[in-house]
């Protein structure tokens, strides 16, 4: 009887407690978009509010919220309300909230100017987990003692009325009470054009082969194009101008995890004449057009790293190779026939005026020989080059992208502008700063847009939009080059802190351009001079002394 009473008392006392979920203890604050917050420690850099610079209509503005907890948080979700200003509304579908994911990174090579080179032994670098990936995951678990950032973005509608808009961000979970952060954002009367109308010439090289491998789909199948669409849509929304196409197999010697292959088949017939298959090239270009990238088509390369050119020999039923240096008879015969037929095909498709035959970082003598061949076979073909500045080649190049640290002579740049030619700058594994590695200061990506304006370039090139590593969602390190050098977005339509900050810098470029044109039109020389002085500060010397975040934030507060 006593035992029965004890059991009844225990059940009556404990069942209500068992039914009450333990509420976790966690914190929610605004952070800074220019800080990569460590995962295993509480954050120490905060903001009092989300947005500090007035937004233009049509602009994308970003904020970062921080969740950290003493307990495990289960089934955590984040929602953002619509934003209102009186009767005016920025709808909820113009506001996004994405959890920031962590990937493995490494760091700079101490004591070396260039960061290029093999990194086969990852233990030689100080590897760590770093915040970068903007996940599409809607619900996460946050482990006790860790920080989880949340990336907030508002894409202000072009028809939004000026005013101060307010709303809230809400975090909740199955074992944690809902908490909110207030959002307040001022929208001005100024309007930023749509990305496709931006003047900034963005050229991030795409790798369709990486998408096929990662998503395990047949190359150039409908499933492949479906998998590429969300990835390339991010690029289109950044104002990308150029489609990256390949004329031959492994133009860069297969240095990436997924080598580039030829998009155009070449067959030597039984009678020794040539036949070309443009089906893959056409489908790729048409697909990119459908995404919204249609300004230019850069086709690589007449000068690959290995001077070996593939074709199908109909008589032997084999893939064969021509091994020939630019300027040789074999080289001119192989490429001369192709250049002539390629021009014919492009004209039939209406793409000739948008297409360039492109090369990068090749010896001057080889490039001169290739240019001479192009001019002899098809004088009207546009030519592109990414590399060092060469006086001997400049006048031949429609699209000339020079390495960071080089500059066009002022008179040459002015003439190229008058002639409607494209003059841009690029960074790669060489530069420690500025760069878009996964360990780089996020503000350096935005700083690039200001530097492009300061040096009066037309835009920016980087060789690696999505040449993903073996496991890009977790490890951005590669066998060569610093971590993150191979890609700036993640599979299946996940952006990154680096990519969004690069877009911010491009928007800053566009805003400066609009203001500068307005001041010139109105004859407002005083404000024009002050703006130009601010822009001119964006040199590598000032970057190293003051830091990208400080420079960009001060410039925005002064002008936007």
Number of strands: 24
Largest beta-sheet details: 8 strands, parallel
- The helix count comes to 13
Radius of gyration: 27 Å
Structural class: alpha/beta
Query: Are there runs of 5+ residues with pLDDT below 50, and where?
Result: 1-20
CATH homologous superfamily placement of one domain = Immunoglobulins
Strand content: 25-35%
What is the fold's blueprint, element by element?
Elements: H1 2-19, E1 26-31, E2 55-57, E3 60-69, E4 73-80, E5 83-85, E6 88-90, E7 95-105, E8 128-134, E9 140-142, E10 147-155, E11 163-173, E12 176-191, E13 201-204, H2 208-214, H3 222-236, E14 242-246, E15 265-268, E16 274-277, H4 279-291, E17 296-300, E18 308-313, E19 318-323, H5 329-349, E20 355-360, H6 364-377, E21 382-387, H7 391-394, E22 399-403, H8 410-418, E23 422-426, H9 442-454, E24 459-462, H10 497-522, H11 525-536, H12 540-546, H13 548-559
Helix pairs in contact: 9-10, 9-13, 10-11, 12-13
């Amino acid at each position: 009887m006593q035992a029965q009473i004890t059991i009844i008392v225990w059940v009556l006392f404990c069942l209500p407690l068992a039914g009450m979920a333990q509420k976790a203890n966690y914190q929610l604050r605004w952070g800074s978009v220019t800080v990569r917050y460590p995962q295993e420690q509480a954050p120490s850099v905060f903001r009092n509010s989300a947005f500090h610079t007035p937004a233009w209509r049509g602009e994308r503005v970003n904020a970062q919220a921080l969740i950290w907890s003493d307990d495990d948080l289960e089934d955590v979700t984040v929602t953002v309300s619509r934003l209102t200003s009186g009767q005016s509304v920025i709808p909820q579908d113009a506001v996004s909230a994405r959890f920031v994911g962590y990937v493995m990174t490494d760091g700079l090579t101490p004591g070396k100017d260039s960061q290029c080179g093999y990194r086969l032994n990852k233990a030689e670098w100080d590897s760590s987990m770093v915040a970068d990936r903007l996940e599409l995951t809607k619900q996460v678990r946050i482990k006790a003692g860790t920080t989880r950032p949340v990336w907030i973005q508002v894409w202000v509608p072009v028809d939004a009325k000026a005013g101060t808009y307010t709303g809230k961000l809400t975090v909740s979970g199955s074992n944690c009470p809902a908490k909110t952060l207030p959002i307040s954002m001022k929208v001005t009367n100024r309007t930023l054009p749509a990305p496709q109308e931006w003047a900034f010439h963005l050229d991030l090289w795409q790798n369709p082969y990486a998408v096929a491998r990662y998503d395990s789909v047949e190359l150039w199948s409908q499933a492949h194009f479906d998998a590429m669409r969300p990835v390339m849509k991010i690029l289109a929304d950044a104002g990308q101008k150029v489609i990256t196409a390949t004329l031959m197999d492994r133009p860069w010697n297969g240095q990436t995890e997924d080598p580039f292959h030829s998009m155009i088949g070449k067959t030597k017939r039984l009678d020794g004449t040539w036949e070309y298959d443009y089906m893959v090239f056409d489908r790729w270009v048409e697909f990119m057009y459908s995404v919204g990238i249609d300004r230019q088509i850069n086709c690589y390369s007449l000068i690959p790293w290995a001077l070996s050119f593939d074709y199908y020999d109909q008589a032997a039923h084999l893939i064969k190779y021509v091994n020939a240096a630019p300027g040789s008879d074999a080289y001119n015969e192989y490429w001369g026939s192709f250049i002539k037929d390629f021009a014919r095909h492009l004209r039939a498709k209406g793409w000739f005026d948008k297409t360039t035959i492109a090369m990068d970082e090749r010896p001057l003598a080889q490039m001169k020989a290739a240019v001479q061949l192009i001019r002899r076979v098809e004088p009207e073909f546009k030519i592109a080059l990414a590399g060092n500045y060469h006086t001997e080649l400049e006048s031949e190049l429609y699209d000339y992208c020079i390495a960071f640290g080089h500059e066009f002579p002022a008179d040459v740049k002015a003439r190229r502008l008058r002639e409607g030619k494209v003059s841009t700058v690029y960074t790669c594994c060489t530069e420690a700063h500025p760069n878009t590695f996964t360990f780089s200061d996020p503000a350096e990506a935005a700083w690039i847009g200001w530097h492009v304006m300061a040096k009066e370039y037309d835009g920016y090139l980087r060789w690696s939009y999505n040449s993903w590593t073996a496991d890009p969602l977790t490890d951005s390190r590669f066998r060569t080059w610093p971590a993150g050098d191979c890609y700036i977005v993640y599979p299946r339509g996940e952006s990154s802190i680096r990519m969004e900050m690069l877009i911010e810098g491009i928007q800053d470029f566009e805003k400066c351009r609009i203001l500068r044109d307005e001041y010139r039109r109105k004859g407002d020389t005083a404000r024009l001079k002050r703006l130009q002085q601010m822009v001119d500060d964006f040199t590598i010397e000032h970057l190293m002394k003051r830091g990208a975040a400080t420079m960009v934030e001060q410039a925005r507060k002064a002008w936007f």
